[in-house]
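Table S2 (text version). Query chain:
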Amino acid sequence: MKLFNKFFKDESGAVTVDWVVLTAAIVGLGIAVLTSVSGGTTTLADTISTELGTTTILDHSGS
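Corresponding structure-token output:
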């Protein structure tokens, strides 16, 4: 019975488990943000590409 009580009161690995859970949550949130933002940035990049592709450049060099 002493062994079980000692085991349940021991907290030496609890901090490591907490950090692993917190790190996994941060990584998960980062992936969620990247997923939600990537669609908007792709659309914006396509719009900029289209605008730059249709822009005409006038030559005023006089040659």
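Notes on Table S2: The first helix runs from residue 2 to 9. The two ends are 98 Å apart (CA to CA).
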